[in-house]
């Protein structure tokens, strides 16, 4: 059914326990999950909202691929309900979340929610479902999943950083980014927090994300995957996705060398960490449909 060719997940902080990405291959399910890095200052989730969301969705996906799945794994909307329900349950059953006010609190405080994106291949449906801005490629053809709001804030961040460069006395340090702070990231942080208001809404800046409050009729992009097709599922930690892991890693390294602050990449709301040399948690799963 699903013949895994290669798979890898790497956390940006070097500690697997802090990796907000993950992947699942179970029965007729293959998926990549990308927990959203929290912009919250409430300190509710331990170790982070992204890790909590990644763990919850990966566990739910494992059950979907089991002999006794909680719903029909070929039914996209049923799968959406199960995955979103896992996060909603955290608001009631996680001790810190319940103490914060449970579902009622998170309904009115979207920036404090545990969130994740996912791309799911269901063998029973013969489809790939793009729940958010994770990536997919079929037979070498990738689809663009960068959100409109990320393009906007990425452009604003680039504008701020380049304006600081023009004003900087030490232009060499600013151009390389080595050890330099990111004034652009700081400038857009309030907007990144405001962005959560658009989660699971329609319109120009609306976007889908699993957060316990998804719209059950939200349009989900789907791709067909037939027997013999080669499929890549990945998180957005690979901003230049390629048909193989080696090629994707090489493209990422090229970006690190030529544009370490990610000023010229669509949706680049942050750059490489100048100390670790990393950009984001990243997950890559390549398989052949049988």
Sheet/helix structural class: alpha+beta
CATH topology call: Phosphatase 2c, domain 1
**Helical region count?**
8
Low-pLDDT sequence parts:
172-179
Number of strands: 10
What can be said about this structure in brief?
This protein is an alpha+beta fold and 290 residues long. It is built from 8 helices and 10 strands.
Draw up the topology in text.
Elements: E1 2-10, E2 21-26, E3 29-35, H1 49-64, H2 76-93, H3 95-100, H4 102-108, E4 116-122, E5 127-131, E6 135-138, E7 141-142, H5 148-167, H6 171-176, H7 183-195, E8 221-224, E9 230-234, H8 245-258, E10 282-289
Helix pairs in contact: 1-2, 5-7
Overview of the molecule:
The chain has 290 residues and is of the alpha+beta class. The protein has a single domain (2-289), classed as 4-Layer Sandwich (Phosphatase 2c, domain 1), CATH 3.60.40. Helices cover 34% and strands 20% of the residues. It has eight helices and ten strands. Helix 1 packs across helix 2 and helix 5 (148-167) runs antiparallel to helix 7. The longest helix has 20 residues, at 148-167. It is globular and about 65 Å long. The protein starts with a strand and ends with a strand. 42% of the residues are buried. Residues 172-179 have low confidence and may be disordered.
Q: Can you tag this structure with a few keywords?
A:
8 helices, five-stranded antiparallel beta sheet, alpha+beta, 290 residues, Phosphatase 2c, domain 1, globular
């Amino acid at each position: 059914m699903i013949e895994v060719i290669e798979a890898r997940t790497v956390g940006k902080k070097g500690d697997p326990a802090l990796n907000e990405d993950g992947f699942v291959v179970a029965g007729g399910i293959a998926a990549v999950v990308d927990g959203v890095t929290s912009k919250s200052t409430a300190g509710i989730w331990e170790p982070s909202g992204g890790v909590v969301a990644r763990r919850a969705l990966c566990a739910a996906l494992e059950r979907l691929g089991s002999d006794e799945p909680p719903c029909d794994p070929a039914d996209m909307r049923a799968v959406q309900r199960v995955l979103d329900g896992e996060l909603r349950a955290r608001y009631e059953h996680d001790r810190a979340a319940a103490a914060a006010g449970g579902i009622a609190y998170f309904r009115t405080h979207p920036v404090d929610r545990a969130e994740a994106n996912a791309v799911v291949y269901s063998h029973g449906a013969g489809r790939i479902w793009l729940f958010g801005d994770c990536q997919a490629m079929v037979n070498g053809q990738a689809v663009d999943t960068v959100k409109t709001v990320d393009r906007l804030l990425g452009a604003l961040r680039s504008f701020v950083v380049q304006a600081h460069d023009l004003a900087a006395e030490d232009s060499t340090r600013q151009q390389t980014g080595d050890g330099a702070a990111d004034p652009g990231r700081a400038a857009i942080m309030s907007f990144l927090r405001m962005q959560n208001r658009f989660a699971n809404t329609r319109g120009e800046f609306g976007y889908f994300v699993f957060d316990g409050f998804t719209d059950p009729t939200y349009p989900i992009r789907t791709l067909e995957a037939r027997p013999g097709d080669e499929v890549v599922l990945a998180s957005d930690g690979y901003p230049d996705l390629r048909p193989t892991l080696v090629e994707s890693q090489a493209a990422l390294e090229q970006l690190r060398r030529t544009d370490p602050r990610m000023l010229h990449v669509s949706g680049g709301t942050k750059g490489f960490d100048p100390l670790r040399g990393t950009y984001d948690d990243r997950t890559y799963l390549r398989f052949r449909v049988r």
